[in-house]
Structures are given as C-alpha cells and as structure tokens.
C-alpha cells in the first residue's frame, strides 16, 4: 500500500497538497463505493438476505482503495515515463502487484472473520476433493438384522480411533429436488460389529455456501471425533445435506414457488438415511442443525416436522427465512405475495399455535453479532413458551462466522447427549 500511496517520482518532487489529496480521495471514494455496492446488493437486487458484518465491509475498503490508487498510478506513470514501453510496462506491473498484495491481505482478513477456510487445501477444495464415496460395506445390507440398541450395545473388540467422512448422493425421489452431494460422518462405533443403533444429526450450511463448508469451516470431523473419544467411540451419524442446489441458491427450506425443499428435507432425506445407514429410526434420536441460513432451516424442520426431527441445534439463526432484507420481497418471490401462506410455515408462527413438549432446541450466537443474538433470544423465548427444552449460548470473541458453529457444536452435542442416551 505504501508503494501505491507514494507519489511517482518521490515525495520531494510531488506537490505537498497533491501528495496528500490523492490517497485521501481514493480512501473516501472507496468507502463510498463499498457502501454503495453493499446497499445495492442487499436492497435493490437482494443478492444477500441481510446486511454484511461491519468487519467485512471495513476490510473491503483497503482493497478498493488499493485498486483506485493502482489505476491512478498506472495512468500517471504511463503518461510521464518516456519510451521504451518496457519501462512503462514495468511500472504498471509493479502497481498491479502492489494491488494484488493488498487484495490478498483483505481476503485473508475477511476469510479469518468468517472462519471458513483454515488451510490452502480448504481454499482450493483439495481437502474435500479427496473424500471418497460411501462404500457398500458401510451401508445397511439387505436382510441384515436391525442394529443393536445403544443401551445394550458393547463392542466386540477395539474401536478405531477416528470416524470416517464419506460423500453420498441423496435423490429427490418424492420432491424432485436436485441437491449437491451430501457428506456423511460415521463415528468409530459405526465401524464396530455389531453396530449400535446410533442417533442421527442432519446438518445444513449457510447461504451462500455448500455442504462442504461444514467439513472445512465447521471442522466437522475433528469436533465429532473429539466427542466420540469422550463417549467410548459413540457419536451420532451426521449427514450434511444440501437444501439449496447451487452455491447462491436460496430455497428458504420451504415448499414454495422456488422449490420443494421442505419435502426433500422432511421425506427424501430421512428415507434415504433410514434405508441406507444403520441408525436408530426413532424420531427422538434425530436432530437437525445448521449455521446461519442452515440454523434457520434446522428450526424450521424441528417446528414443521417434529415427528421427523424432534430437536435442533441452531448456530446464528435468522428470526425467519429470508430472501431479502425487505420482507415483502421474500413473500412475493416465494408465495406470490400471500403473506399468510408464508407465515404459516415460519417457526415463530408455529410455536405460537402448537405445543412441542418433550422436544429440544439448542441456540448459539457470536458475542460480536448483536442482531443474531437478538434473534436467538426471540426464538428461544418462543420455544420455551411452546414447550421445548431450550439452552442458549453466546460464543465469546466471535461474530457471524463459522467459528460459532465449530465452537458451539461441542456444547450442542453435550446438550443432546442425555437425550440420545450417550454416556461418558
């Protein structure tokens, strides 16, 4: 950045007023551009359903400032330097390299805030690309006896030290929905013989995003292995499901004009899990969970389909499903403006009109995310009034990031363990 701020020809040769004015003008213009583009993406075109965190906007400003300064410096150098052209080309290349460095720094800081990619392999997709597909030997075999009750199960030998991560395709047999591949975590106990009837946790990622985000940002395998190690190799079978179909898609996890996502999650996904994996079919042993959009989706499943998902883990949930900051745009796009049809499917409406005694909800939100902390309190209060067993946690030193999900998952699993009958 200092190279871009420094006037061409040095500080001594440049007029003092101009030397100060150019960087200041670039900073002011970049701030206006970032705020203007952000407003345009949130309101007129509703690319984001809510405003971005201030930290993300703040780290975007240096990158835009560097771009403006690089363009100004390249134009100034090109006009002032004599031929040959290679001298001009070298100066322009240097300005571009300086901009690239600032852009990389801003990107690193934004990624650090969201906590999504922890390694270069995560960023390049190499970490998830190496995950194999679900082998036949890990599936439920035809004619095989039902798995042993977890309360009566004892392993016949030593268990593996770690669980397995696999990919799988879940067809939209009833809904017609086409989802991206799911990720399946199978704990050490699943690899035993005989297998116990393990509980099920179905997870959803944020939006925009993909199921792989739970593997990278959510640190799924390490968190689940840690829980399993503390519980004699026992942990839930985890299936990370895609409710959106594309990275930028948003189905609201509803059956609407957009897609039949609710049918996919409430019928197709449970049927596939129950027919493919050795798990406990009892709904009291099933839970949904997610981060941000995925947390909202999880609460929707727990309130719309308590006969399928009797509990949910919600990390940084929205107050209700949303396509846009302006509520009427969501209702228009999904239900043709029919507000009643939309509201009948929202968790707050359902918790006002139904009882959920015996079911459970766990909430987590980042300490630096006041809006979503407020959402958490509103939802938790409604859930308690509707009969849910509820716990809330504010995750320290975090904002609206995957750190909330990664750190909160351990406490959420501890909250669910007695319900699942998992003992230390």
Fold topology:
Layout: H1 2-5, H2 16-42, H3 54-80, H4 85-114, H5 120-124, H6 126-129, E1 164-168, E2 182-186, E3 200-204, H7 212-216, H8 220-229, E4 237-240, H9 261-276, E5 286-291, H10 293-304, E6 311-315, H11 327-335, H12 339-343, H13 347-353, E7 360-366, H14 370-385, E8 389-395, H15 402-420
Parallel strand pairs: 3-4, 3-5, 5-6, 6-7, 7-8
Antiparallel strand pairs: 1-2, 2-4
Helix pairs in contact: 2-3, 3-4, 8-15, 13-14
Could you walk me through the main structural features you see in this protein, from its secondary elements to its overall organization?
The chain is an alpha/beta fold and 424 residues long. Helix content is 46%, strand content 10%. The chain folds into two domains: 2-114, no CATH class; 157-420, Rossmann fold. The chain has helices at 2-5, 16-42, 54-80, 85-114, 120-124, 126-129, 212-216, 220-229, 261-276, 293-304, 327-335, 339-343, 347-353, 370-385, 402-420, and strands at 164-168, 182-186, 200-204, 237-240, 286-291, 311-315, 360-366, 389-395. α14 links the parallel β7 and β8 (389-395). The mean pLDDT is 90.
